[in-house]
Amino acid sequence: MSTLQQIRNGMSQAWDSLVDGWQHLYRRAGNAITHFSRGKEDSEEARELAARSTGWGVLASEVYDDHDKVVVRLEAPGMEGADFNIEVVENYLVIRGQKNIEQEHTDGRYHILECAYGSFERALPLPDDVIADEARASYKRGVLRIELPKSSAARRHRIDVKVQ
């Protein structure tokens, strides 16, 4: 096999590995990728930072079905509870928010900026019908937790079968 053919084979294997990695990442985090749009910044430096930090970011979530409620957890570090607007629309939990830029320095420039800032919206599908008026939300240590009681029609009922 020629050297050129070996290089082609090596490049083909590397490309296949890269494609597999991206497909795996997309399957695991595709729904968590959220678009952040620009907010209203006061200073020129804040506007420049916002322009570089808006776009796509990750807000990972979990939705799980407890016996009598649906529980949603959304990782959203660096925010306050008042920064969220939460509502149920049809069979979706819609979470909107504003992640504000908090600069921790007075001099210098950012060289790496991987955090996303700005306005965002996530729509998470709910597995069952819920009673939106009875939902409760809390925010602690960067995690928004929402408990949505299921409607009585959506609650699971266990039926025991007696063996004779």
Broad structural category: alpha+beta
* Low-pLDDT sequence parts: none
- Reading the helices and strands in chain order gives HEHEEEEEEEE
Give the averaged pLDDT, no decimals: 79
Strand order in the sheet with the most strands: 3-4-9-8
Radius of gyration: 22 Å
Percent of sequence in beta strands: 25-35%
How widely separated are the two ends? 72 Å
Helix percentage range: 10-25%
Shape: flat
Q: How many strands, what sense, and barrel or not for the largest sheet?
A: 4 strands, antiparallel
Question: Helix count?
Answer: 2
Count the E strands.
9
Structure explained in plain terms:
The chain has 164 residues and is an alpha+beta fold. Strands 3-4-9-8 form a 4-stranded antiparallel beta sheet, with no helix packed on it. It has a 3-stranded antiparallel beta sheet with strand order 5-6-7, with no helix packed on it.
Helix/strand layout:
Blueprint lengths: L2 H27 L3 E4 L7 H10 L1 E4 L2 E5 L3 E7 L8 E6 L2 E8 L18 E8 L10 E5 L2 E7 L15
Antiparallel strand pairs: 1-2, 3-4, 4-9, 5-6, 6-7, 8-9
Throw out a few tags for this protein.
single chain; alpha+beta; four-stranded antiparallel beta sheet; three-stranded antiparallel beta sheet; 2 helices; 23% helix
Brief rundown of the structure:
By secondary structure, the protein is of the alpha+beta class. Helix content is 23%, strand content 33%. The longest helix is centred in the N-terminal third of the chain and has 27 residues, at 3-29.
